[in-house]
Specification:
Blueprint: H1 4-15, H2 21-29, H3 36-49, H4 55-63, H5 69-83, H6 88-94, H7 96-137, H8 139-142, H9 146-171, H10 187-214, H11 222-225, H12 234-239, H13 246-280, H14 284-291, H15 300-311, H16 316-327, H17 330-344, H18 349-410, H19 429-455, H20 461-488
Helix pairs in contact: 1-2, 1-6, 1-7, 1-17, 2-3, 3-4, 4-5, 7-9, 7-18, 9-19, 10-13, 13-14, 13-17, 13-18, 13-20, 14-15, 15-16, 16-17, 17-18, 18-19, 18-20, 19-20
C-alpha cells in the first residue's frame, strides 16, 4: 500500500512510451526501492515468462493472492481490461483518478488509525503515571520497599511505551522526505556529518565530565561550572549533557525545511519543462536555458545547476542524478527518474509533465495532512512529558517532606510511635529520584522517535526533540520540587 501509488504512476509513465507492455512490467520488477510491490510485479512477470501465461491471466491469478485489497482490485481490473483488448496506456490514464483516490483513502485511513493510537497512548501513559505516583507515595503507609515498587512500575512503563512506539512505527505510511544517494560527498552531507560529530563529541564529553564529577574522580564537577545552582539538581545532570545534540538537530531541521520547499516547487517546474519541451520539440538543455531564469524558489539554484551540467555535455542521466542528489528529496528523485526514463523511451513530454505534476501535488496534499497529525502528536507528547514529570516529583517531594516531619515528631515527648503510621525509613530518596530521571530520559527518547517516525523526516530529527523533551522534564522536575517545598515545608 505504501508504494502502490508511485508504482502505478511509474507504470503509467512507462506505458506511454515506445516499449511493449511486458517490458513495462519487467522494468518495474527491477526497481528494488518499490519493495514488495516490485516483488508482486515480478511474480506476474514470472507467470508470463516461465509458465507461458498471458498477461491478463497472470494479473487475475495474482489478484487472488495479493493481501492488499487495493492492489488486488487493481490487478483484477487490469487483467480483465487487457483481456478485452484495451491498451495498457489507455487503461492506466483513464484509471489515474481512481488509483489516486484509492491511495488517498489508504493514506488517510492510516492517519486516522494514528489518531486512535494517540488517544490510547494518552490513556495508557496517564494510567502508568498514576501507578508510578502511587508506587512512590504508598510505601509511606505500607512500609514496603519503595525502590522495588518504583522499579516494577518503571519496567511496566518502559514496556507500554515501547509497545506503542512499535505499533505507531508499523502503522505509519512509508513516505520519507529525504533521499539518500550512494555518493556521500555532497556539501549537505558534509555539513550534517560535521554537525553530528561535533554535537555527539561535546555531548559525550559533558556526560563523562558529569559522571566523573558525581563519582568524585575529578576535583571539578558540574556544580562548579553552573555556579548559580549549588548544589546542581539531579535532573539537570541528565539534561545538560544532551544539549550539544541540538547542533545536528537544528542543521538537519533547517535542511529539511528547504527540501520541503523544493518539493512544493517541483510540480510547477516539471509541468513547465514538459509543456515547453512538447511545444518547442527541443531538448531539455535548450528548454532549461529559458526556465533557469524563472523563479522556482529554493529549487532555482538546482535547476540552474542542472542546465549547466547538461550544457557541458554531461550524460543526461548523470546530470539528473546530480540534480536529485542536490535536492535530497525522495519525491523529486522518484518523479525525476520517471520523467527521465519516459523521455528516453520516447514519451510525450507534455503528457509526462502533467501526469507527474498532478500525482506529486496529490502526495503533497496528503503530506500536509500528515504534517498536521505530526503537529498534534508533538503537542501531545510535550504535554504528557510535562504533566507526568509534574506528578512524579510531587509524589517524591511529598514523601521527602514527610520524612523530615517524622523526625520532628519522634523528637517529641509523646508515647505515640509515629513509625507505626508513617514509614519513611524505607525510602532512599536520591535513588528514587535517580530512577525518575531515568524514566524521563527514556520517555524523551521514545517520544522523539515517535515524532520522527510519524513525520517521515531525517533520523537526526530525533536529537532536537530528545533534547527539548529532556529539558522540559528536568526543568519541571526541579520547579515542582521547589514549589512543593515552598507550600508544604514546615
Amino acid at each position: 500500500n505504501n508504494q502502490f501509488h508511485l508504482v502505478v504512476t511509474h507504470m503509467t509513465v512507462l506505458s506511454t512510451t515506445n516499449i511493449d507492455r511486458m517490458e513495462v512490467f519487467r522494468r518495474l520488477a527491477e526497481q528494488d526501492e518499490y519493495g514488495e510491490m516490485a516483488a508482486e510485479i515480478g511474480r506476474v512477470v514470472e507467470l508470463v515468462d516461465t509458465w507461458n501465461q498471458s498477461l491478463d491471466d497472470a494479473c487475475r491469478r495474482r489478484a487472488k493472492e495479493v493481501p492488499s485489497e487495493a492492489v488486488s482490485d487493481f490487478f483484477d481490473r487490469l487483467g480483465y481490461t487487457l483481456g478485452a483488448g484495451q491498451a495498457l496506456d489507455d487503461y492506466l490514464l483513464s484509471e489515474q483518478e481512481q488509483i489516486i483516490q484509492n491511495y488517498k483513502t489508504v493514506y488517510r485511513g492510516t492517519l486516522d488509525n494514528l489518531e486512535v493510537m494517540k488517544d490510547l497512548y494518552l490513556s495508557m501513559v496517564l494510567s502508568m503515571t498514576f501507578a508510578l505516583v502511587f508506587a512512590v507515595v504508598l510505601p509511606v503507609l505500607t512500609g514496603t520497599n519503595p525502590t522495588m515498587t518504583v522499579s516494577a512500575v518503571i519496567i511496566l512503563y518502559v514496556f507500554v511505551q515501547s509497545g506503542f512506539y512499535l505499533a505507531i512505527r508499523s502503522m505509519t505510511p512509508h513516505d520519507p522526505v529525504w533521499y539518500h544517494p550512494e555518493d556521500k560527498s555532497s556539501p549537505i552531507e558534509g555539513s550534517i556529518t560535521k554537525a553530528t560529530v561535533v554535537g555527539v563529541a561535546l555531548s559525550v564529553l559533558l556526560l563523562t565530565f558529569s559522571l566523573t564529577g558525581m563519582l568524585g574522580l575529578l576535583p571539578v564537577t558540574l556544580d562548579d561550572v553552573v555556579f548559580f545552582l549549588d548544589p546542581l539538581p539531579l535532573p539537570l545532570y541528565a539534561a545538560i549533557p544532551t544539549t550539544p545534540l541540538l547542533i545536528p538537530g537544528f542543521v538537519v531541521r533547517n535542511e529539511e525545511q528547504r527540501i520541503k520547499a523544493r518539493d512544493e516547487e517541483f510540480p510547477s517546474f516539471i509541468r513547465a519543462l514538459g509543456a515547453t519541451e512538447g511545444a518547442k520539440q527541443s531538448t531539455t538543455s535548450t528548454v532549461l536555458s529559458t526556465l533557469r531564469n524563472k523563479d522556482f524558489g529554493p529549487l532555482t539554484d538546482n535547476v540552474d545547476n542542472l542546465y549547466k551540467r547538461l550544457n557541458m555535455r554531461i550524460e543526461t542521466s548523470e546530470a539528473w542524478r546530480h540534480f536529485t542528489a542536490e535536492c535530497r528529496s525522495y519525491l523529486i528523485q522518484t518523479f525525476s527518474e520517471m520523467y527521465l526514463i519516459g523521455r528516453e523511451m520516447g514519451g510525450d513530454p507534455k503528457q509526462l509533465g502533467e501526469l507527474i505534476s498532478e500525482n506529486m501535488m496529490e502526495v503533497q496534499q496528503l503530506r500536509q495532512q500528515r504534517s498536521q497529525a505530526t503537529t498534534t502528536l508533538i503537542g501531545l507528547l510535550y504535554g504528557i512529558t510535562a504533566a507526568s514529570t509534574f506528578a512524579f516529583f510531587i509524589g517524591l517531594q511529598v514523601v521527602n517532606i514527610l520524612a523530615s516531619m517524622t523526625l520532628n515528631l519522634n523528637s517529641s515527648s509523646t508515647d505515640f510511635d509515629v513509625g507505626s503510621l508513617i514509614n519513611t525509613s524505607v525510602y532512599n530518596i536520591p535513588l528514587i529520584e535517580f530512577l525518575l530521571v531515568i524514566i524521563i530520559v527514556f520517555g524523551a527518547m521514545l517520544s522523539s522517535l515517535m515524532v520522527r517516525t510519524v513525520d517521515g523526516g531525517h533520523k537526526l530529527n530525533t536529537y532536537l526533540h530528545f533534547v527539548l523533551l529532556t529539558w522540559i522534564g528536568a526543568v519541571i522536575g526541579v520547579a515542582t520540587k521547589w514549589l512543593v517545598s515552598q507550600f508544604l515545608a514546615i
